[in-house]
Amino acid sequence: IPTRYGRANTFSSQRKHGLFKKAYELGVLCSVDVAVIIFEEKPGHNFKKLYQYCSSDVQEIVQRHIRHDGEKDTRGPADFAGG
């Protein structure tokens, strides 16, 4: 999305809702706990906002993540770039 306005508008009106809906569906269909945390900052502005979706208590899921000492399947941007 070429313009900053277009990216912000797409995020706020479409993508965020779709992402949270998919997280909800994943939690229900697979019987798993899901947490999605999004930090939005606008460069050049004093604007910071946190968005979150959690199938249960977000603090409890974050603590479980920190304490987890088993296997982890970690993904990053490179895993999804290019399609």
From TrEMBL:
Q: Which Pfam families match?
A: SRF-TF
Instruction: Please provide the Gene Ontology terms (biological process) for this protein.
Output: positive regulation of transcription by RNA polymerase II
Task: Report the GO terms under cellular component.
Answer: nucleus
What molecular functions are annotated in GO for this chain? DNA binding; protein dimerization activity
* Keywords from the named record: DNA-binding, Nucleus, Transcription, Transcription regulation
Protein's cellular compartments = Nucleus
Q: Which PROSITE patterns does the record associate with it? A: MADS_BOX_2
The protein's name in its UniProt record:
MADS-box domain-containing protein
Organism, as annotated? Lentinula guzmanii
